[in-house]
Amino acid sequence: MKYSDLRDAYDILCSAPIGESEAYVSRSTGVVYWYSSVAELGELPDDIEEGDDYLPLPDKAELGLGRTLALNFVAQHSPDHREDVFEFFRGPGAYSRFKGLLDRLGLLSSWYEYEELAIDEALKEWCYDNDLEFE
Q1: Which pLDDT tens digit goes with each residue over 9-41?
Q2: Could you give the CA distance from residue 131 to residue 135 in angstroms, rounded to a whole number?
Q3: Are 32 and 38 contacting, i.e. CB atoms less than 8 angstroms apart?
Q4: DSSP string over 65-81
Q5: pLDDT at residue 134, rounded to an integer
Q6: In sequence order, what are the residues at sequence separation of 6 or more whose Cβ sits closer than 8 angstroms to the Cβ of residue 16?
Q7: What b-and-e string marks burial along 85-119, b requiring 16 or more CB atoms within 10 Å of the CB?
Q8: How does DSSP classify residue 64?
Q9: Do residues 126 and 59 make contact, with C-beta atoms less than 8 angstroms apart?
């Protein structure tokens, strides 16, 4: 499987509202399939529900890339704001407020780099855990 295909499908999966996109990897062929009902793009195989060949891609929460990642970033880069960020994640609009804080602190680009590395690391570990090879 091409890692870039996996990453693209993951990005589509996580950019759409919950339940509006699906992404799978065929264990036998390594082909990555995805579909987004938001944009009506992509295509899933007809036999996606049959057997165990198709492995659903995990989302951000399943990979532990949500609140915990944000709190870890703040703990490393601006520990004085850890409580503020913790409070952000107790209600709606958390990421918007979190990114607003990072922007004010001049840390937004550092956050994006940190998040990208964490996503790649988590996806590669997921592949390893599921005996999926990528190039």
Answers
A1: 999 888 887 788 899 999 999 999 998 887 777
A2: 13
A3: no
A4: -SHHHHHHHHHHH-GGG
A5: 86
A6: 36, 37, 38
A7: beebeeeeebeebbbebbeeeebeeebeebeeebb
A8: T
A9: no
